[in-house]
């Protein structure tokens, strides 16, 4: 009877856990939709600032610290984008693994690596291992906002502009004495999770600063109508006030800041998708476990009933035999 009681208690416990995982799955599913909507809502601004930057780049000298490798630079920063909560499957593990690979590569090149962390899980991970952290920002992994992430984005840009030979002013989230300037760095890498689909999220390591040039090759159509289609088409000419170099220098940090914020939005969608997949798997496993336990409990109950019937029949037979002997 004790064995059957234990099985029933375990079934009850698994069902309670199943209710929690199912609720987490539904919550994560709703958050994926909201996160995707935020990514789509940010696209018009992203496309417009990219368009303006492209026009300015074609008219400026492109002589800006954010566009070239710093000579003698030996300090690289890594921003690790993790989650604030767990129950997200291998989401954080993949980010930490990719960070370790990137860190080993940078150290092999002779760089001093500085760690910045976004998310409670990353903060706890590196603190537990005794790793030095230059700064950490938490509380917005699932719903990053421009205001909440301002200090993080502004510090990373300022510290890169200062370089390893300079300092940036202290901001909230940085470790060390409050108010004291913080040493800068010469490279900025971001490790985050890219949202590919509801089932696939991939950890990426991206060099944010200095900006790596992207060369796009346009395909040239050489059919018979090319002369007729190109006839009369003139590339637009722009006049900038103030000059293109001044505007380029003012807008480039905003462009980088927007790029970093876009990565945080991608990571938020990936976190919800990873948590949804993990909770769905946990719910399915709980359902299968309850089914198996119920079968074992039924077998135990049937065996107990069979034993009781056997004992009753045996007792009745014994009584009958004793009556005949009398």
Automatic annotation (TrEMBL):
GO terms for cellular component: plasma membrane; proton-transporting ATP synthase complex. It is a peripheral membrane protein. GO terms for molecular function: ATP binding; proton-transporting ATP synthase activity, rotational mechanism. One of its GO terms (biological process) is proton motive force-driven plasma membrane ATP synthesis. Pfam families: ATP-synt. It comes from the Bacteria. SUPFAM superfamilies: ATP synthase (F1-ATPase), gamma subunit (SSF52943). PROSITE patterns: ATPASE_GAMMA (PS00153). Its main location: membrane. PANTHER family: ATP SYNTHASE GAMMA CHAIN, ATP SYNTHASE SUBUNIT GAMMA, MITOCHONDRIAL. F-type ATPases have 2 components, CF(1) - the catalytic core - and CF(0) - the membrane proton channel. CF(1) has five subunits: alpha(3), beta(3), gamma(1), delta(1), epsilon(1). CF(0) has three main subunits: a, b and c. This is ATP synthase gamma chain. The gene is atpG.
